[in-house]
Amino acid sequence: MSLDQNQQPELNAAADSTAPPEPSGATGAPMPAGAAEPAARTVDDFQRELDALRDRNLRLLADMRNLQQRSKREREEALRYAEAEFARELLVVLDDLERAMQAASGADAPLSEGMRITHEHFLKLLRTRGIEPIAAVGEPFDPALHEALLQQPSAQFPAGIVAQEVARGYRMHERVIRPARVVVSSGPPA
Prior knowledge:
Elements: H1 3-18, H2 36-80, H3 84-104, H4 109-128, E1 131-134, E2 146-152, E3 162-167, E4 169-172, E5 175-178, E6 180-185
Parallel strand pairs: 2-6
Antiparallel strand pairs: 1-4, 3-6, 4-5
Helix pairs in contact: 3-4
């Protein structure tokens, strides 16, 4: 054998070791034909999962914003109606003042005038706080606004209409803080 023939197997072995490796998967094993398709499905699966997580995050963000807005509205409403209980107590004093005015009518003129002025100031103060009287006499009975004490015949008012106001009702902004206590007409006397 010649020197060239002895070197030939070594050259062939060296050439084999420098040849580029065949494509392989993540494990180092050669990838079979058609293996790119499962990898694409995995990417699609990840994309669907990512889309689902984004959707979930957007929904959670929307829920959080809704909760913040609702909490803000509830705080504002609580502040708006915080004075309601105190106002109810003041209304009892106003009722007493109105009864005193009725009892003093025709009596001492300066006393009656002083009570009238005090009454006007009281009502003005209530209005500045959003407290208004509820219309009753001549209005259709509304259980949300009126408390019926009794029902009686009336020649002046048809059935279901408030014929008399026993105690004035009040609302604070849109909320009733005390319903009007009323007598409701049952229609003309028989």
